[in-house]
Amino acid sequence: MTTTTTPLPPKTERPPAVRRRFAAARPAAGFAVAALVLFAGAPLALSDFRLGLLAKYLCTAMVAVGICLAWGRGGLLTLGQGVFFGLGGYAMAMHLKIADAGPGNLPDFMQLYGSATELPWWWRPFANPVFAVAATVLLPMAVAAILGSFIFRRRVKGAYFAILSQALAAAFAIWLVGQQATTGGTNGLTDIQGFFGYDLDDPVNQRMVYFVIAAVLLLLIALARQLLHSRYGELLIAVRDSEERVRFLGYDPANVKLVAYVVAAGMAGLAGALFVPAVGIISPALVGIVPSIELVIGAAVGGRASLTGAVLGAIGVAWAKTALSEEFPAGWTYFQGLLFIVALAFLPGGLASLAAVVKRRRAGRRLAGDTA
Predict the structure, then answer these.
(1) Strand bridging mode 194-195 / 198-199
(2) What is the CA radius of gyration of the chain?
(3) At what angle do helices 81-101 and 253-279 cross, to 10 degrees?
(4) Torsions phi, psi of 194, nearest 5?
(5) 3-state DSSP call for residue 348?
(6) Distance CA 26, CA 60 (A)
(7) For every one of its 372 residues, what pLDDT tens digit does the chain have, with 9 covering 90 and above?
(8) DSSP characters over 57-97
(9) What span, in angstroms and rounded, lies between the C-alpha atoms of 320 and 326?
(10) How far is 82 from 123, CA to CA, in rounded Å?
(11) What is the DSSP letter of 120?
(12) Which of 318, 332, 337, 321 is nearest to 62 (CA)?
């Protein structure tokens, strides 16, 4: 007696229109999940202290969004994002210190370190909250526009651009340290107590700051995604891959790179501004060479070409720094450098590309088996 088996029907593929709908729905679903985790899951699961740490990590993730745009898609290894982070942070901290001091009074550190009887002229505009908030974004963008114009029009790129941006971070930190009477020197601007009329010692207000930071992060991701999927995003990738071809087509690669650099600077400045009420301090130790490299490491480990990977990588590395540096204070820096080297040497696309790498290797083995 013989038995016959009925062959399975061939697997039918979804029509192109259905595939396009699924592809269009993925970003919305991703944003919904991220919003649910940030606005419901984290506040319910974490204590006030841990939620404050998460707010700090989310600020580094904002910088990673800009790094994804400039480096991941534009090929600009920005090792000086700490400068723009610091400009935004100091702009916000200056206003908050003036507000904490009260009308007609000097910030506490000026009374301690300096002999001035009134605010320096370049501090006075920051007493206006509108000016201060605008400066947190526009000041870093203006500095980036000026520097980028000189750098890109002279066709400086690659390692030379990275070294220049790193030297800028070092110079900025040194300048801050040397201006103790007006910037707080090595200590920076500390003991910030209020945030536009809200007492930062109140846990409820600290949670409000966290929610503001989470909302801004999602908005920056949406903005970056819109840029990356626009005609400009395609042009940015083309400039990264072949500047001469883009120039031959009539576009100026310097302008294309400048836009990415300026937008990334604005995102870093906004991150620095929100970091101040989340942590209560901004200092040269947070804006120099080492912090700038740490920001890049987070994006590299997670996946510099992927917005999701860059954000999660930045949060993960920032968390690891907090957790591991407490246990291994002397070895954390070496481990962090090893992370960067391994990510660039063995997994250039970061953890976000791991699934694609495994899939390609399996396909390669399958093809090799079939040909054998």
Answers:
(1) antiparallel
(2) 24
(3) 40
(4) -125, 160
(5) coil
(6) 25
(7) 455 555 555 555 556 655 566 556 677 888 899 999 999 999 999 999 999 999 999 999 999 999 999 999 999 999 899 999 999 999 999 999 999 988 888 888 888 876 677 888 899 999 999 999 999 999 999 999 999 999 998 888 888 898 899 899 999 999 999 888 888 889 999 999 999 989 999 999 999 999 999 999 999 999 999 999 999 999 999 999 888 888 888 889 999 999 999 999 999 999 999 999 999 999 999 998 888 988 998 898 888 888 999 999 999 989 888 887 777 777 777 777 787 777 777 777 788 777 777 677 776 667 666 665
(8) HHHHHHHHHHHIIIIIIT----TTHHHHHHHHHHHHHHHHH
(9) 10
(10) 21
(11) -
(12) 318
- Alpha helix locations (H) across the chain? 16-36, 42-45, 48-67, 81-101, 108-113, 129-153, 159-178, 180-183, 203-228, 231-241, 243-248, 253-279, 289-302, 307-327, 332-346, 354-371
Q: What angle do CA 210, 82, 174 make, to 5 degrees?
A: 125
Q: Are 302 and 191 in contact (CB under 8 A)?
A: no
What the block records as the tokens of 353 is 């590309």
- The region that residue 250 occupies, defined by phi over 0 for left and psi between -120 and 50 for alpha, beta otherwise, is left
User: Residue 8 corresponds to which tokens in the numbers above?
Assistant: 């399975």
Extract the tokens encoding 94. 């200056």
- Tell me how long the chain is: 372
User: What gap in Å lies between CA 94 and CA 96, rounded to an integer?
Assistant: 6
